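Retro notes (design track)

What went well: tokenization of the new backbones is finally stable.
What didn't: we kept losing track of which sequence belonged to which structure.
Fix going forward: every design gets posted as structure first, then sequence, in one message. First example under the new rule, 218 residues:
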């Protein structure tokens, strides 16, 4: 009888542990899959919880994680990824001023300029700040192509996507005409031999019934 009760208790406990693991896993941020186990960064973001069935990692609350990541940044002030991770924690804390500063640091320090500016632009997208988003997208669009993109079609390059996303942001926010002109001028300057930027600019002019700009495109 005792054996039966003990077994039931053990299975109930095991089920609880499995459920806890599932819950903990469900709340992990998207970048957690890239964190190497048993590193300083893992220790900064996760608590190790000792349980009878073993150990379980649990995501630290954002205020605690930010403090630990700040310590890592003090040790490696030019590690761009640390700034992006701290920025995400600050967004969880709704400290958007600090998050903006860290996304700017990420963009400035990232070896991959495309990734850095994309992170900054996406932050402004989440903050519904179309003017700043456009500024970041236009900087991204103006970047020179990478060697790996040499044989890729224009429309598959991240710079091309930056301009199309900028147009979408301008449309969503109903931005004034000069902002559209900046987008199309940048798009045409970056891809002068592709017809699509010219066609998109012309379509926009026709929609606005702007004959002056239409003549300049033609």
């Amino acid at each position: 009888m005792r054996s039966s009760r003990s077994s039931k208790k053990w299975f109930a406990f095991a089920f609880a542990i499995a459920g806890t693991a599932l819950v903990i896993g469900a709340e992990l941020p998207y970048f957690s899959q890239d964190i190497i186990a048993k590193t300083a960064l893992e220790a900064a973001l996760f608590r190790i919880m000792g349980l009878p069935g073993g150990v379980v990692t649990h995501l630290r609350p954002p205020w605690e994680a930010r403090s630990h990541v700040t310590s890592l940044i003090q040790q490696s002030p030019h590690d761009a990824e640390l700034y992006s991770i701290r920025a995400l924690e600050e967004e969880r804390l709704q400290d958007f001023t600090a998050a903006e500063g860290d996304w700017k640091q990420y963009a400035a320090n990232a070896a991959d300029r495309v990734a850095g500016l994309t992170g900054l632009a996406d932050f402004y997208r989440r903050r519904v700040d179309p003017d700043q988003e456009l500024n970041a997208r236009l900087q991204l669009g103006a970047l020179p192509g990478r060697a790996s993109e040499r044989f890729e079609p224009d429309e598959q390059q991240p710079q091309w996507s930056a301009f199309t996303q900028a147009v979408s942001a301008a449309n969503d926010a109903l931005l004034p005409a000069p902002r559209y002109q900046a987008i199309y001028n940048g798009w045409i300057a970056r891809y002068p031999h592709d017809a699509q930027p010219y066609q998109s600019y012309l379509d926009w002019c026709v929609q606005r019934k702007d004959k002056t700009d239409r003549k300049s495109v033609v």
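Added context from the reviewer: DSSP finds eleven helices and two strands in the chain.
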